[in-house]
Write a structure and sequence with these properties.
CATH class of one domain: Alpha Beta
Order of helices and strands: EHEHHHEHEHEEHEHEH
Helix content: 40-55%
CATH superfamily of one domain: P-loop containing nucleotide triphosphate hydrolases
Shape: globular
Number of strands: 8
Strand order of the largest sheet: 2-3-1-4-8
Number of helices: 9
Distance between the termini: 12 Å
CATH architecture of one domain: 3-Layer(aba) Sandwich
């Protein structure tokens, strides 16, 4: 069964998605990673994406949907995908359903990590992502893990869009655009809301309980 994991920027979606990948043998499909990979390729589209992200803006649905469809089409995984950071609005939610239907797939669980903005600010300002394995850590909370990171701590970089002004803009924009999709999904029997401000392990345990039902 496929899983949607969503929540505001900095809610810990990437960390929890990695947990699901390792624990339940899922494939993490992160739209954020898809966009950053395109930027890394330095294509015309990548440059456009980088400009939007650096200014705290979201990339258009057309761009995201095209990258998403291409990735699902190339995946060997079937009904074992965890969607990290998508959908962000009702149109994307409907589009995801349409794409999955074309590949004879459905959504098994929808998990929302709910976190207040003040918690998000601290998490994002300390966030570092490995350029090699895409693992995300926090310089305030994961000092030992950073020192022992197998890829080498020199590969842990802060994102250009991780500054306080952009954080606030992204959080407010996310909550504004996501409220309708939250309402859209919350009516489903397979929807679960989890307090994303608790300890990482507690959140992982709750997600594990949901997936084991």
């Amino acid at each position: 069964m496929n899983v949607i994991l969503f929540g505001p920027p900095g809610a810990g979606k990437g960390t929890q998605a990695q947990f699901v990948v390792k624990k339940h043998n899922y494939f993490q499909l992160s739209t954020g990673n898809l966009l950053r990979e395109e930027v890394k390729l330095n294509t015309t589209l990548g440059k456009e994406i980088e400009k939007l992200i650096s200014n705290g803006k979201f990339v258009s649905d057309e761009i995201v949907n095209a990258l998403l469809r291409q990735s699902i089409n190339n995946l060997k995984f079937r009904d074992r995908i965890i969607f990290d950071g998508y959908p962000r609005n009702v149109d994307q939610a409907k589009n995801l359903k349409s794409i999955l239907s074309a590949f004879n797939q459905t959504i098994g669980h929808i998990i929302f990590l709910n976190v207040d903005r003040d918690v998000i600010e601290k998490r994002i300002m300390g966030r570092m992502t490995c350029e090699k394995c895409h693992m995300t850590m926090n310089e305030f909370f994961n000092k030992e893990q950073i020192e022992l990171h197998p890829c080498g701590k020199e590969f842990l970089k802060k994102r250009k869009d991780d500054n306080i002004e952009v954080v606030i803009a992204r959080y407010d924009k996310y909550m504004e655009s996501t409220k309708p999709v939250l309402d859209f999904y919350s009516k489903n029997a397979n929807f679960t809301e989890i307090d994303g401000a608790t300890e990482i392990e507690q959140i992982s345990n709750k997600i594990n309980d949901v997936l084991n039902v």
